[in-house]
Write a structure and sequence with these properties.
The complex is a heterodimer of chains A (405) and B (68).
Chain A (H helix, E strand, L loop, with lengths): L5 E5 L3 H12 L3 E6 L13 E3 L1 H5 L9 E5 L1 E5 L5 E5 L5 E4 L1 H14 L3 E4 L1 E9 L2 E9 L2 E6 L2 E4 L6 H6 L10 E10 L8 E5 L9 E8 L2 E9 L7 H11 L1 H7 L3 E11 L8 E2 L2 E3 L15 H21 L4 H31 L2 H11 L9 H13 L3 H12 L4
Parallel strand pairs in A: 1-2, 1-12, 2-8, 5-14, 12-19
Antiparallel strand pairs in A: 3-7, 4-7, 5-6, 9-10, 10-11, 13-16, 13-17, 14-15, 15-16, 18-19
Chain B lengths: L9 E5 L9 H5 L5 E3 L4 E3 L19 E5 L1
Antiparallel strand pairs in B: 1-4, 2-3
Classes of the chains: A alpha/beta (405), B mainly beta (68).
């Protein structure tokens, strides 16, 4: 590939495939390179996806990857007081990432992108400071691939982020350390709700999730803040399965059929995701919700923007950071506030004691929060104010800013 | 820190039988001493300074510090 409108996308996950599809629509030549020979494997995810992100990105969720539709979620406070956030109609799905990632990559290839698997990027090439290609190891040999733009869609441990200098190593607290099981023989109480559990002893700066997958199957996992735990993520999850009432109620008969690990950037987006001739998308860009750890929707929307902008810049013959900056401007316009607000709430939650979360749950419980009428919301807020608990009121205020209560 | 730049005479070691290649260790390594491949990870002894940051984020206790 030596054409003058060639874009290299490093990473064949949802971020890379969404970027490729958009770049192809604008007429660019695209090569996706991936270190792995199988995308989507091993699964490192809870596998929940909302309808919104793929909808905005105009990417249809592959039918064959959908396991169950999801109407919302139930959160358990540390004392197991539950609050539901649910719609009448499904707002998302639990999917199978093995099928999902592969199908999106297949679509990218079908749209005309080349795919090079088993190719590990070891360096970038530059001309006059402008990134203009990658050096990969492939089948035991070094190989240079030239491109007008290099896009890093290579995940939380992004080599492109490192090589471009867009990100140094994370601090432990910047990431979540995750562990999960896929289980069968689960007796789930709500087959179309995700369940989250909070608690400083249960899962420090994180949550435990139970995601239904249909037919008595579920993903049960945990994410804890790096360096926040006394034990490992796996030990916290095993403790939950053995000792927590919610687990005893629903997972006493359950059997483990898969173990999963994962790491997530939860410190918000990188300060800058663009340099001369290169940019970052997906987890590599830090496009992950700092509280939920969700990232696929952002990856697909921001990836679509990146693919479009990169291809247009290539077509105009100017791939300087100043021109590629349009990507940065456009994704920030859509999600900048959301990331910033969520990060603020996350930091507030770190300082929030379990008792305050229990108090909050007690005030809100009994209602399906998404469906709350304005009057009811005011009543709930009034209840919170009546407690005269400063921490609780602050927390409530931040939740209201995010339109959660 | 000693003049050689090593914070200790220790070295990170991965237990490949436990490691699930989540890459958490590699993302926090301040020395970029952990190289990730499809089926395994490698600690680069020349770069590792034995700081132990990697051990704090491993979800499964697959990485530990050993004497050099």
């Amino acid at each position: 590939m030596s054409s003058d409108n060639h874009i290299i996308i490093v990473g064949g996950g949802p971020a890379g495939s969404a970027t490729a599809l958009a770049a192809r629509r604008e007429g660019a030549e695209v090569t996706i390179v991936d270190r792995k020979t199988h995308v989507g494997i091993p699964v490192q995810c809870g596998e929940a996806i909302g309808k919104t992100g793929p909808g905005i990105a105009e990417i249809e969720i592959p039918e064959e990857s959908i396991r169950v539709p999801i109407r919302g979620f139930r959160v358990y406070s540390p004392a197991l007081i539950s609050v539901d956030f649910a719609e009448k109609e499904p707002s998302g799905y639990i999917i199978d990432r093995r099928v999902f990632d592969k199908e999106l990559l297949a679509r990218a290839a079908e749209s005309g992108s080349d795919v090079l698997l088993g190719a590990k990027v070891i360096d970038l090439t530059r001309t006059k400071g402008l990134v203009d290609g990658v050096v990969v190891r492939h089948n035991g040999a070094r190989k240079k691939i030239k491109a007008k733009v290099v896009i890093g869609a290579d995940g939380v441990n992004s080599e492109i982020a490192r090589l471009t200098g867009l990100r140094r190593s994370f601090k432990p607290a910047d990431i979540d350390s995750c562990f999960g099981y896929e289980m069968v023989n689960c007796d789930l109480e709500f087959p179309d709700l995700m369940e989250f559990l909070l608690g400083s002893n249960l899962c420090p700066r994180g949550y435990i999730w139970i995601f239904p997958k249909g037919e008595g199957r579920a993903n049960v996992g945990i994410g804890i803040g790096g360096g926040f735990g006394v034990y490992t993520a796996q030990q916290y999850l095993d403790n939950f399965l053995k000792n927590n009432e919610i687990a005893k109620r629903q997972l006493a008969r359950a059997k483990i059929v898969e173990c999963r690990v994962g790491a997530l950037p939860v410190c918000g987006p990188n300060e800058q995701n663009v340099v001369d001739g290169a940019l970052l998308v997906g987890d590599a860009a830090g496009h992950v919700h700092p509280i939920t750890g969700g990232g696929m929707g952002y990856a697909m929307v921001c990836g679509s923007i990146a693919g479009q902008v990169a291809a247009q810049c290539v077509a105009k013959g100017d791939v300087s950071a100043a021109r590629l900056q349009e990507y940065e401007t456009r994704w920030r316009k859509r999600y900048g506030d959301e990331f910033a607000q969520s990060l603020k709430l996350r930091d507030l939650l770190i300082e929030t004691e379990d008792e305050t979360l229990d108090k909050l749950a007690k005030i809100v419980t009994g209602d399906s929060v998404v469906k709350l009428a304005a009057a009811r919301k005011i009543k709930i807020f009034a209840k919170a104010v009546a407690t005269r608990d400063r921490k609780l009121i602050t927390l409530m205020r931040e939740l209201r800013k995010l339109k959660m209560v | 820190m000693s003049p050689s730049g090593k914070t200790s005479n220790k070295l990170a070691k991965v237990n490949g039988e436990i490691c699930g290649i989540c890459q958490a260790c590699a993302t926090v390594c301040p020395k970029n001493a952990i190289d990730v491949f499809e089926h395994y990870i490698v600690i680069l002894p020349d770069k590792c300074n034995g700081c132990g940051t990697c051990t704090k984020v491993c979800p499964v206790e697959a990485i530990e510090l050993v004497e050099r």
